[in-house]
Amino acid sequence: MGFIAPNEISSTNSLLISRPYLIKTIPDPGEMASSTVVYRMVGCRFKYTPVMSTTLDITVLCNTQQDIPNTGSNTQICYGTGTPPALNDTFTGTQVGNIFVNATAAGIDTQHVTCTAIVPVVINTSYWFDLSSKSRSGGNTTYTNIYICIKEI
Known about the structure:
disordered N terminus, single chain, 56% strand, Jelly Rolls, 5-stranded antiparallel β-sheet
């Protein structure tokens, strides 16, 4: 059997290469101010620096809650370099992946909001990742239980 690098696992039929990944729980950022015209930033303030690949697979899971019945929000992953945006900042960065659309009654959690994206990056460059949010018909949105998983692919 040939040389096996420290980050590789070998079996009789395949060779698996371990890739860097990170799963992070983000502190609840607070309530978003209502904005039906433009996207605003949720304020996750999460940073990641790729070390092995120029492509990242990003998944964000969270709960949302509306304060007005029959409203909802659009949520999408965004990223950029430099200082990460704070809660309710005007949209910045690049939006990627699917737009998650939810509509719920007031005070009811929408479980399992899932946004995913494949992002091209430069190795050894630090990026911030966040969610952008826009109210669908007024009201405020609160994001809780935010989990970000980033894998270099």
